[in-house]
Protein backbone atom coordinates (compact mmCIF):
# COMPACT_ATOMS: atom_id res chain seq x y z
CA UNK A 1 0.00 0.00 0.00
CA UNK A 2 1.19 3.50 -0.88
CA UNK A 3 0.93 6.44 1.50
CA UNK A 4 0.75 10.20 1.08
CA UNK A 5 1.96 12.39 3.91
CA UNK A 6 0.64 15.96 3.97
CA UNK A 7 3.56 18.17 5.03
CA UNK A 8 2.89 21.52 3.36
CA UNK A 9 1.56 23.76 6.16
CA UNK A 10 3.40 26.66 7.81
CA UNK A 11 2.45 26.06 11.46
CA UNK A 12 1.69 29.68 12.39
CA UNK A 13 0.10 28.65 15.69
CA UNK A 14 3.40 27.04 16.65
CA UNK A 15 5.23 30.39 16.63
CA UNK A 16 8.10 30.84 17.34
CA UNK A 17 9.12 27.20 16.88
CA UNK A 18 8.29 26.89 13.17
CA UNK A 19 9.44 30.38 12.24
CA UNK A 20 12.53 29.25 10.33
CA UNK A 21 11.96 25.54 9.73
CA UNK A 22 9.04 23.29 8.75
CA UNK A 23 6.92 22.29 11.73
CA UNK A 24 7.08 18.70 10.48
CA UNK A 25 10.81 18.55 11.29
CA UNK A 26 10.43 19.68 14.90
CA UNK A 27 11.81 16.97 17.21
CA UNK A 28 9.99 14.75 19.67
CA UNK A 29 11.87 12.15 21.68
CA UNK A 30 15.11 13.10 19.94
CA UNK A 31 13.80 12.55 16.39
CA UNK A 32 12.10 14.87 13.86
CA UNK A 33 8.36 14.29 13.93
CA UNK A 34 8.05 13.58 10.20
CA UNK A 35 10.96 11.13 10.22
CA UNK A 36 9.30 9.31 13.10
CA UNK A 37 6.10 9.00 11.05
CA UNK A 38 7.96 7.72 7.98
CA UNK A 39 9.83 5.18 10.07
CA UNK A 40 6.57 3.97 11.63
CA UNK A 41 4.94 3.59 8.21
CA UNK A 42 7.90 1.58 6.91
CA UNK A 43 7.75 -0.71 9.93
CA UNK A 44 4.02 -1.17 9.25
CA UNK A 45 4.83 -2.36 5.73
CA UNK A 46 4.54 0.79 3.61
CA UNK A 47 7.34 1.10 1.07
CA UNK A 48 6.19 3.90 -1.27
CA UNK A 49 5.54 7.36 0.18
CA UNK A 50 4.59 10.61 -1.50
CA UNK A 51 5.12 13.80 0.53
CA UNK A 52 3.06 16.87 -0.27
CA UNK A 53 5.25 19.86 0.59
CA UNK A 54 5.18 23.64 0.19
CA UNK A 55 6.56 25.82 3.02
CA UNK A 56 10.35 25.29 3.22
CA UNK A 57 9.91 22.42 0.78
CA UNK A 58 13.61 22.18 -0.05
CA UNK A 59 14.51 21.53 3.58
CA UNK A 60 12.15 18.54 3.69
CA UNK A 61 13.40 17.24 0.34
CA UNK A 62 17.01 17.60 1.45
CA UNK A 63 16.35 15.86 4.76
CA UNK A 64 14.69 12.74 3.30
CA UNK A 65 16.32 12.61 -0.17
CA UNK A 66 14.93 9.47 -1.88
CA UNK A 67 14.04 7.69 1.39
CA UNK A 68 16.35 4.74 0.90
CA UNK A 69 18.13 5.33 4.20
CA UNK A 70 14.77 4.64 5.87
CA UNK A 71 13.95 1.58 3.78
CA UNK A 72 11.40 3.14 1.44
CA UNK A 73 10.95 5.24 -1.70
CA UNK A 74 10.00 8.88 -1.11
CA UNK A 75 8.85 11.38 -3.72
CA UNK A 76 8.03 14.99 -2.89
CA UNK A 77 5.30 16.89 -4.73
CA UNK A 78 4.90 20.62 -4.22
CA UNK A 79 1.40 21.89 -3.49
CA UNK A 80 0.83 24.99 -5.64
CA UNK A 81 -0.80 26.91 -2.81
CA UNK A 82 -1.79 26.31 0.80
CA UNK A 83 -5.42 25.65 -0.07
CA UNK A 84 -6.39 23.13 2.60
CA UNK A 85 -6.20 19.38 3.16
CA UNK A 86 -8.46 18.46 0.22
CA UNK A 87 -6.31 20.54 -2.11
CA UNK A 88 -3.23 18.77 -0.74
CA UNK A 89 -4.73 15.33 -1.42
CA UNK A 90 -5.71 16.44 -4.93
CA UNK A 91 -1.97 16.98 -5.56
CA UNK A 92 -1.34 13.21 -5.42
CA UNK A 93 -4.18 12.13 -7.73
CA UNK A 94 -1.91 11.13 -10.61
CA UNK A 95 0.40 9.26 -8.22
CA UNK A 96 -2.43 7.07 -6.95
CA UNK A 97 -4.28 6.54 -10.21
CA UNK A 98 -4.99 2.83 -10.50
CA UNK A 99 -4.37 2.16 -6.78
CA UNK A 100 -7.26 0.31 -5.13
CA UNK A 101 -6.59 1.84 -1.72
CA UNK A 102 -4.02 4.15 -0.17
CA UNK A 103 -3.10 5.86 3.07
CA UNK A 104 -3.36 9.59 3.74
CA UNK A 105 -1.46 10.80 6.82
CA UNK A 106 -1.14 14.30 8.30
CA UNK A 107 2.55 15.04 8.76
CA UNK A 108 2.15 17.27 11.82
CA UNK A 109 0.70 14.63 14.15
CA UNK A 110 2.41 12.17 16.47
CA UNK A 111 1.43 8.50 15.94
CA UNK A 112 2.50 5.66 18.20
CA UNK A 113 4.08 2.75 16.32
CA UNK A 114 1.75 0.04 17.66
CA UNK A 115 -1.36 2.11 16.95
CA UNK A 116 -0.21 2.87 13.41
CA UNK A 117 0.52 -0.84 12.84
CA UNK A 118 -3.04 -1.70 13.86
CA UNK A 119 -4.45 1.00 11.59
CA UNK A 120 -2.57 -0.28 8.53
CA UNK A 121 -3.66 -3.85 9.28
CA UNK A 122 -7.29 -2.66 9.37
CA UNK A 123 -6.95 -1.56 5.74
CA UNK A 124 -8.03 -5.05 4.61
CA UNK A 125 -11.59 -3.83 5.16
CA UNK A 126 -13.52 -2.67 2.07
CA UNK A 127 -14.75 0.37 3.97
CA UNK A 128 -13.00 3.71 3.96
CA UNK A 129 -11.21 4.25 7.29
CA UNK A 130 -10.48 7.25 9.49
CA UNK A 131 -8.50 7.43 12.72
CA UNK A 132 -10.55 8.71 15.66
CA UNK A 133 -9.26 9.90 19.05
CA UNK A 134 -11.00 11.12 22.21
CA UNK A 135 -9.73 14.48 23.52
CA UNK A 136 -10.64 16.91 26.29
CA UNK A 137 -11.13 19.83 23.92
CA UNK A 138 -12.30 18.99 20.38
CA UNK A 139 -12.58 22.64 19.28
CA UNK A 140 -9.34 22.70 17.26
CA UNK A 141 -9.97 19.43 15.39
CA UNK A 142 -12.66 17.98 13.19
CA UNK A 143 -15.24 16.53 15.61
CA UNK A 144 -16.75 13.15 14.73
CA UNK A 145 -20.13 11.61 15.45
CA UNK A 146 -19.62 7.84 15.63
CA UNK A 147 -22.40 5.24 15.80
CA UNK A 148 -21.74 1.50 15.89
CA UNK A 149 -18.17 2.06 14.81
CA UNK A 150 -19.09 4.12 11.75
CA UNK A 151 -18.68 7.86 11.27
CA UNK A 152 -22.06 9.46 10.56
CA UNK A 153 -21.11 13.15 10.72
CA UNK A 154 -18.03 15.39 10.71
CA UNK A 155 -18.07 18.89 12.19
CA UNK A 156 -15.09 21.23 11.71
CA UNK A 157 -14.01 23.39 14.65
CA UNK A 158 -16.82 22.82 17.16
CA UNK A 159 -17.23 24.78 20.41
CA UNK A 160 -14.76 24.00 23.19
CA UNK A 161 -15.51 22.72 26.65
CA UNK A 162 -16.64 19.12 26.20
CA UNK A 163 -14.79 15.85 25.73
CA UNK A 164 -15.28 14.60 22.20
CA UNK A 165 -14.08 12.26 19.47
CA UNK A 166 -11.96 13.96 16.80
CA UNK A 167 -10.34 13.29 13.47
CA UNK A 168 -6.82 11.88 14.06
CA UNK A 169 -5.65 12.85 10.57
CA UNK A 170 -5.03 9.38 9.13
CA UNK A 171 -7.19 7.66 6.49
CA UNK A 172 -7.47 4.70 4.16
CA UNK A 173 -9.18 5.98 1.01
CA UNK A 174 -9.73 4.97 -2.60
CA UNK A 175 -10.01 6.86 -5.88
CA UNK A 176 -13.60 7.89 -5.15
CA UNK A 177 -12.12 10.71 -3.06
CA UNK A 178 -10.83 12.65 -6.07
CA UNK A 179 -14.20 13.32 -7.78
CA UNK A 180 -15.51 14.29 -4.32
CA UNK A 181 -12.64 16.77 -3.91
CA UNK A 182 -13.51 18.37 -7.25
CA UNK A 183 -17.05 18.94 -5.96
CA UNK A 184 -15.88 20.34 -2.61
CA UNK A 185 -16.48 24.03 -1.91
CA UNK A 186 -14.35 26.30 0.22
CA UNK A 187 -15.04 26.21 3.94
CA UNK A 188 -15.65 29.24 6.13
CA UNK A 189 -11.90 29.33 6.69
CA UNK A 190 -11.38 29.79 2.97
CA UNK A 191 -9.87 26.33 2.49
CA UNK A 192 -10.86 23.11 0.77
CA UNK A 193 -11.29 20.64 3.65
CA UNK A 194 -10.79 16.90 3.15
CA UNK A 195 -13.47 16.27 5.78
CA UNK A 196 -15.99 18.11 3.56
CA UNK A 197 -15.07 15.81 0.68
CA UNK A 198 -15.60 12.80 2.93
CA UNK A 199 -18.97 14.18 4.01
CA UNK A 200 -20.01 14.23 0.34
CA UNK A 201 -19.09 10.55 0.04
CA UNK A 202 -21.06 9.71 3.20
CA UNK A 203 -24.09 11.52 1.78
CA UNK A 204 -23.86 9.21 -1.22
CA UNK A 205 -23.92 6.15 1.03
CA UNK A 206 -20.22 5.38 1.42
CA UNK A 207 -19.38 3.95 4.83
CA UNK A 208 -16.41 5.33 6.75
CA UNK A 209 -15.32 3.20 9.67
CA UNK A 210 -13.70 4.81 12.72
CA UNK A 211 -10.47 3.21 13.96
CA UNK A 212 -9.91 4.31 17.57
CA UNK A 213 -6.62 5.74 18.81
CA UNK A 214 -5.97 5.69 22.56
CA UNK A 215 -4.69 8.54 24.70
CA UNK A 216 -1.03 7.59 24.26
CA UNK A 217 -1.41 6.63 20.58
CA UNK A 218 -1.87 10.04 18.97
CA UNK A 219 -1.18 13.70 19.61
CA UNK A 220 -2.47 16.40 17.30
CA UNK A 221 0.15 19.16 17.24
CA UNK A 222 -1.34 22.62 16.79
CA UNK A 223 0.31 24.62 19.59
CA UNK A 224 3.82 24.61 21.10
CA UNK A 225 2.70 22.83 24.27
CA UNK A 226 1.38 19.93 22.17
CA UNK A 227 5.01 19.11 21.42
CA UNK A 228 5.56 18.48 25.12
CA UNK A 229 2.73 15.93 25.16
CA UNK A 230 4.03 14.25 22.01
CA UNK A 231 7.56 14.23 23.41
CA UNK A 232 6.41 12.51 26.60
CA UNK A 233 4.43 9.91 24.63
CA UNK A 234 7.46 9.19 22.46
CA UNK A 235 9.75 8.84 25.48
CA UNK A 236 7.29 6.46 27.13
CA UNK A 237 7.15 4.20 24.07
CA UNK A 238 10.76 4.25 22.81
CA UNK A 239 13.28 1.64 23.90
CA UNK A 240 16.08 2.68 26.22
CA UNK A 241 19.62 2.94 24.80
CA UNK A 242 22.77 3.43 26.90
CA UNK A 243 25.59 4.36 24.51
CA UNK A 244 26.77 7.45 26.41
CA UNK A 245 29.24 7.85 29.25
CA UNK A 246 28.53 8.48 32.94
CA UNK A 247 31.07 9.58 35.54
CA UNK A 248 31.25 8.18 39.07
CA UNK A 249 28.42 9.39 41.28
CA UNK A 250 25.73 9.63 38.58
CA UNK A 251 22.32 8.15 39.43
CA UNK A 252 19.96 6.97 36.67
CA UNK A 253 16.38 5.97 37.50
CA UNK A 254 13.80 4.60 35.08
CA UNK A 255 14.12 4.67 31.29
CA UNK A 256 17.07 6.91 30.37
CA UNK A 257 18.54 6.97 26.86
CA UNK A 258 22.12 8.22 26.61
CA UNK A 259 23.06 8.61 22.95
CA UNK A 260 26.53 8.07 21.52
CA UNK A 261 29.06 10.65 22.64
CA UNK A 262 26.91 12.03 25.46
CA UNK A 263 28.39 12.58 28.92
CA UNK A 264 26.70 12.85 32.31
CA UNK A 265 29.04 14.32 34.89
CA UNK A 266 29.44 13.38 38.54
CA UNK A 267 26.66 14.12 41.02
CA UNK A 268 23.90 14.32 38.40
CA UNK A 269 20.53 12.62 38.89
CA UNK A 270 18.37 11.61 35.93
CA UNK A 271 14.84 10.36 36.46
CA UNK A 272 13.30 8.86 33.30
CA UNK A 273 11.80 8.81 30.87
CA UNK A 274 14.56 11.07 29.59
CA UNK A 275 16.42 11.29 26.26
CA UNK A 276 19.98 12.68 26.05
CA UNK A 277 21.13 13.30 22.48
CA UNK A 278 24.46 12.72 20.75
CA UNK A 279 27.30 14.75 22.18
CA UNK A 280 25.15 16.31 24.93
CA UNK A 281 26.83 17.11 28.25
CA UNK A 282 24.94 17.17 31.57
CA UNK A 283 26.23 18.43 34.91
CA UNK A 284 27.98 18.18 37.21
CA UNK A 285 25.26 18.04 39.87
CA UNK A 286 22.38 18.54 37.41
CA UNK A 287 18.86 17.12 37.79
CA UNK A 288 16.89 15.94 34.74
CA UNK A 289 13.28 15.07 35.54
CA UNK A 290 10.74 12.92 33.63
CA UNK A 291 9.67 14.02 30.17
CA UNK A 292 12.92 15.80 29.32
CA UNK A 293 14.51 15.44 25.89
CA UNK A 294 17.91 16.97 25.05
CA UNK A 295 18.98 17.29 21.42
CA UNK A 296 22.42 16.91 19.86
CA UNK A 297 25.20 18.93 21.44
CA UNK A 298 23.06 20.36 24.25
CA UNK A 299 24.89 21.56 27.37
CA UNK A 300 23.17 21.53 30.78
CA UNK A 301 25.43 23.18 33.33
CA UNK A 302 26.18 22.66 37.01
CA UNK A 303 23.29 22.79 39.44
CA UNK A 304 20.57 23.03 36.76
CA UNK A 305 17.15 21.42 36.94
CA UNK A 306 15.25 20.56 33.75
CA UNK A 307 11.76 19.10 33.99
CA UNK A 308 9.38 17.84 31.26
CA UNK A 309 11.03 20.02 28.64
CA UNK A 310 12.04 19.73 25.01
CA UNK A 311 15.52 21.16 24.42
CA UNK A 312 16.57 21.27 20.77
CA UNK A 313 20.02 20.85 19.22
CA UNK A 314 22.97 22.94 20.44
CA UNK A 315 21.03 24.75 23.16
CA UNK A 316 22.98 25.91 26.24
CA UNK A 317 21.55 25.99 29.76
CA UNK A 318 24.13 27.65 32.00
CA UNK A 319 24.65 26.82 35.68
CA UNK A 320 21.92 27.32 38.28
CA UNK A 321 19.00 27.52 35.78
CA UNK A 322 15.52 26.06 36.18
CA UNK A 323 13.70 25.00 32.99
CA UNK A 324 10.25 23.52 33.58
CA UNK A 325 7.57 22.45 31.07
CA UNK A 326 9.29 24.52 28.40
CA UNK A 327 10.48 24.27 24.80
CA UNK A 328 13.92 25.62 23.83
CA UNK A 329 14.57 26.16 20.14
CA UNK A 330 17.81 25.21 18.41
CA UNK A 331 20.81 27.20 19.59
CA UNK A 332 19.04 28.84 22.54
CA UNK A 333 21.46 30.07 25.23
CA UNK A 334 20.25 30.69 28.78
CA UNK A 335 22.44 32.78 31.06
CA UNK A 336 23.22 31.63 34.60
CA UNK A 337 20.26 31.81 36.95
CA UNK A 338 17.57 31.97 34.24
CA UNK A 339 14.26 30.75 35.66
CA UNK A 340 11.14 29.71 33.73
CA UNK A 341 8.06 29.95 35.95
CA UNK A 342 5.55 27.24 35.07
CA UNK A 343 2.71 27.58 37.60
CA UNK A 344 0.30 30.44 38.31
CA UNK A 345 -0.41 31.58 41.88
CA UNK A 346 -4.13 30.76 41.51
CA UNK A 347 -3.31 27.27 40.17
CA UNK A 348 -5.43 27.82 37.05
CA UNK A 349 -4.53 26.66 33.53
CA UNK A 350 -1.83 28.73 31.87
CA UNK A 351 -2.92 30.96 28.99
CA UNK A 352 -0.66 31.91 26.08
CA UNK A 353 -1.08 34.35 23.21
CA UNK A 354 -1.57 32.77 19.77
CA UNK A 355 -2.02 35.03 16.73
CA UNK A 356 -2.95 38.00 18.97
CA UNK A 357 -5.52 36.08 21.03
CA UNK A 358 -5.11 34.54 24.47
CA UNK A 359 -5.61 30.77 24.34
CA UNK A 360 -6.21 28.44 27.26
CA UNK A 361 -3.42 25.89 26.96
CA UNK A 362 -5.30 23.36 29.07
CA UNK A 363 -2.03 22.93 30.96
CA UNK A 364 -1.82 23.54 34.69
CA UNK A 365 1.95 23.75 34.31
CA UNK A 366 3.50 25.44 31.29
CA UNK A 367 6.78 27.31 31.14
CA UNK A 368 8.31 29.35 28.33
CA UNK A 369 8.61 28.74 24.58
CA UNK A 370 11.90 29.91 23.01
CA UNK A 371 12.54 30.27 19.27
CA UNK A 372 15.88 29.56 17.63
CA UNK A 373 18.93 31.46 18.81
CA UNK A 374 17.33 33.20 21.81
CA UNK A 375 19.81 34.49 24.40
CA UNK A 376 19.15 35.45 28.01
CA UNK A 377 21.52 37.21 30.41
CA UNK A 378 22.05 36.24 34.04
CA UNK A 379 19.15 36.11 36.50
CA UNK A 380 16.34 36.40 33.94
CA UNK A 381 12.84 35.39 35.09
CA UNK A 382 10.15 34.39 32.58
CA UNK A 383 6.42 34.12 33.37
CA UNK A 384 4.32 31.01 32.51
CA UNK A 385 3.22 30.68 28.89
CA UNK A 386 5.49 33.43 27.54
CA UNK A 387 6.92 32.98 24.03
CA UNK A 388 10.18 34.53 22.86
CA UNK A 389 10.82 34.93 19.13
CA UNK A 390 13.87 33.75 17.24
CA UNK A 391 17.17 35.56 17.84
CA UNK A 392 15.76 37.78 20.58
CA UNK A 393 18.12 38.87 23.38
CA UNK A 394 16.89 39.29 26.97
CA UNK A 395 19.20 41.42 29.10
CA UNK A 396 20.45 40.54 32.61
CA UNK A 397 17.92 40.71 35.44
CA UNK A 398 14.89 41.13 33.15
CA UNK A 399 11.45 39.91 34.23
CA UNK A 400 9.58 38.83 31.10
CA UNK A 401 5.79 39.00 31.53
CA UNK A 402 4.65 39.05 27.87
CA UNK A 403 5.68 37.62 24.49
CA UNK A 404 8.85 39.02 22.93
CA UNK A 405 9.05 39.56 19.13
CA UNK A 406 11.77 37.95 17.05
CA UNK A 407 15.09 39.84 16.92
CA UNK A 408 14.02 42.09 19.83
CA UNK A 409 16.46 43.44 22.40
CA UNK A 410 15.02 43.57 25.91
CA UNK A 411 16.89 45.45 28.65
Summarize the structure.
This protein is of the alpha/beta class and 411 residues long. Helices cover 16% and strands 32% of the residues. It folds into 2 domains: 2-223, Alpha-Beta Complex (Spore Coat Polysaccharide Biosynthesis Protein SpsA, Chain A), CATH 3.90.550.10; 236-410, UDP N-Acetylglucosamine Acyltransferase, domain 1, CATH 2.160.10.10.
Descriptive account of the structure:
The protein is α/β, with parallel strands linked by helices and 411 residues long. It folds into two domains: 2-223, Spore Coat Polysaccharide Biosynthesis Protein SpsA, Chain A; 236-410, Hexapeptide repeat proteins (UDP N-Acetylglucosamine Acyltransferase, domain 1, 3 Solenoid), CATH 2.160.10.10. 16% of the residues lie in helices and 32% in strands. The chain has seven helices and 39 strands. The strands form nine sheets. Strands 14-17-20-23-26-29-34-37-39 form a nine-stranded parallel sheet, with no helix packed on it. A seven-stranded mixed sheet has the order 5-4-1-6-11-8-12. α2 (57-64) links the parallel β4 (48-53) and β5. The radius of gyration is 22 Å and the shape is globular.
Amino acid sequence: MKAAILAAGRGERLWPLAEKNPKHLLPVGGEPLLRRTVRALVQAGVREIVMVVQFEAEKIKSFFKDGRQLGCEIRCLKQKRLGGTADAVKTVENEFRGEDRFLIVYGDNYYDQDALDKFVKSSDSKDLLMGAAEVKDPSRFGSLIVKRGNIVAIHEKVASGNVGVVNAGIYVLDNSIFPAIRRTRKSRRGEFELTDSLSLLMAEGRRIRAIPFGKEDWVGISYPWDLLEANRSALDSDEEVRDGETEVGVHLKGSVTLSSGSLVKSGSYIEGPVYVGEGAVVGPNAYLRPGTSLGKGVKVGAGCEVKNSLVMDDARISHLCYVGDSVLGEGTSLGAGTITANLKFNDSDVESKVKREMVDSGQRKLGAIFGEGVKTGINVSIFPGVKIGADAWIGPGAIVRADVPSNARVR
